[in-house]
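Lab notebook, entry 368. We have the chain sequence and a SMILES string for zinc ion, and the next step in the workflow is to get a structural model of the bound complex before anyone spends time on docking refinements. Request logged below.

Task: model protein plus zinc ion, output structure tokens.
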Amino acid sequence: MKILAAVARGRSEPLGFESLNLAEPAHDEILVKLVASGVCHTDLRAIEVEGMVPKPIVLGHEGAGIVEAVGSAITKVKPGDAVLLTFDSCGSCPSCSARAPSYCQHLLARNFSGKKPSGSIPYTDASGAPVFGNFFGQSSFATHALCRSRNVVKVAAGAPLDLLAPLGCGIQTGAGAVMRSLKVGDGQSIAVFGTGSVGLSAIMAARIVGADPIIAIDVHPARLAAARDLGATHTIDASCEDVAARLREITGHGVKFAIETSGLARSVKTAVESLAPLGTCGVIAATREPEVGIVTRQLMVGGRSIRGIAEGDSIPDEFIPELVEHYARGRLPLERLVTHFPFEHINEAIHDAHGGAVIKPILRMGNR
Ligand SMILES: [Zn+2]
Ligand SMILES: [Zn+2]
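Result returned:
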């Protein structure tokens, strides 16, 4: 079948709209007609960073849409069902068997290789040349996506797909870090470094679990105001305040939990240094710098920990419905993070996400 997709061919060129050929769903595949897709920083990184994914490729990994067709082995969903798309995992490796699919041993092959698990390349272009896809098991910067059972989550008919789309990555990453990975509890202190969509999701989740204080750190006053609006009890402007000193002033002995979402080495260092004894720093963003300057003594003294977190340790079939419920009850006000763009304005959405003019762009695919 023919689909319309935004294709990344080079590092700096804008994405270009192309008509691609996509095979009908195989026995274990689900064809989804996309209604919306969030734009996540991992999409931006995949465009920029040479070698992160093969090109040309269709990116996008916060898709939401309606099931259009299913392969013969699919029982989880049927045509007409509303679904959110999320990361893919194999379902049978030691991590998946231990209910930790975001640490699937085949995560890179299933989400970043540009190919299907079978090894085939999903699309051909107008000239018949192959185009990579299957990004996070979906490639949602398109009118249609081929997914598998493990990376679609059914939601109620009529659910606001153009708001819920980023639950599949950015929102579950931030919220899951708090609720699943670190299991932050009532009355426990947390500092969130970086208040983009992931950091703000962590702050909303921290409020849901009753964390206190909830301290947001960023350099943009508007983001800090949003953080306060969404649940932060304190904010620190790192462009003009001494973060470590302010954190000590607020907490006395340091924070029980820190979450680092900015990807800046100095921020990781400050986050670890700000921990109270037995505190844990969750690292969500990869730093560009190879060294972050943490010495083991800082961890050993006081029994501090640092741990990497992918996709908030989410088991999507369980956690995404829980987040939908929080949204429905007004506890996860996603609408405050979101700016909508028509699909054809995808390059503008990417530009605005880069520059920080918008927190979470969501593309609406319209009726194609
Ligand atoms: Zn696995
Ligand atoms: Zn993402």
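Notes for the group: The mean pLDDT is 96. Worth checking against the assay data. The chain has two domains: 2-168+337-364, 174-309.
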